[in-house]
Specification:
Blueprint lengths: L3 E5 L3 H13 L3 E5 L6 H4 L7 E5 L7 H10 L8 E5 L3 H11 L3 E4 L4 H11 L3
Parallel strand pairs: 1-2, 1-3, 3-4, 4-5
């Protein structure tokens, strides 16, 4: 069965690029422009196998959204990787604060994105 990745980012260029890279690698991909609009995907009958979450977003930060997802029984087992242009040191701190599972610095390449996805799930 094809693994499903949800990409949440308020930048449409990043969403489009990530979607293209991940689809070419064999993943099913859903996208959302903010954490609020992602709930119908996360809590559907077929939740994602991995969430790639931008840190800086309107309405609710990726850190806050990750904290909420990790507190809910229905979503706490989904691996979440934070993506941001912050420094690696800042990202490591945010991963701890959010209880996320990893991070991916921006800008990312096709290889770095696909490798990070494969680190958490097999295509």
């Amino acid at each position: 069965m094809t693994k499903h990745i949800l990409v949440i980012d308020d930048d449409r260029v990043v969403l489009s690029m990530a979607e293209d890279f991940l689809r070419e690698a064999g993943f099913k991909v859903s996208t959302a422009e903010c954490g609020v609009y992602s709930n119908h995907i996360i809590y559907s009958n077929t939740p994602p196998d991995l969430i790639l979450m931008d840190v800086m977003m309107p309405f609710m930060s990726g850190v806050k959204k990750t904290q909420l997802l990790k507190q809910r029984e229905k979503s706490q087992q989904i691996p979440i990787v934070l993506i941001s242009s912050k420094t690696e040191r800042e990202l490591k701190g945010l991963v701890d604060e959010a209880n996320a599972d990893g991070y991916l610095p921006k800008p990312f390449t096709e290889n770095s994105l696909v490798d990070k996805a494969k680190q958490f799930i097999a295509a």
